[in-house]
Design goal:
mainly alpha; 3 helices; 2 strands
Length: 121
């Protein structure tokens, strides 16, 4: 038995529980909601990695550079901060020792300070 009806494209269940055939283009749907992206910091600059990949360096080396680069910068910053603290501490201690020797040493301390001053010139 042949019917002249078009082939059903989509079967839809109606609210009353019956099924209906929908042929043709499906009903337009509402567009998806826009993605709201909160950017808190800029992405890292990948220029060096792109140049490295273009020059034939492997992806493993680039990945290591991406991973260890910021770690190296952080480590060097920490080392520099420690050295700065040690230098300030050395200056303060030296100043304290010189002040104590001058004040407690009496004439001998004064003479020793003058002798050291003359030798440094």
């Amino acid at each position: 038995m042949t019917t002249h009806l078009p082939e059903p494209v989509q079967v839809v269940r109606l609210p009353d529980g019956t099924h209906a055939y929908i042929s043709g283009a499906p009903a337009p749907q509402a567009p998806p909601p826009p993605v709201v992206q909160h950017i808190h910091q800029a992405p890292p600059d990948r220029t060096v990695q792109r140049v490295a990949l273009g020059s034939g360096v492997g992806a493993g080396a680039v990945a290591a550079g991406v991973y260890f680069g910021p770690l190296l910068v952080g480590a060097l910053t920490a080392i520099a901060a420690n050295l700065t603290i040690l230098a300030v501490l050395a200056v303060v201690l030296t100043w304290g020792v010189v002040t104590v020797v001058r004040s407690v040493g009496g004439p001998d301390g004064q003479a020793a300070a003058k002798t050291l001053t003359r030798k440094n010139r």
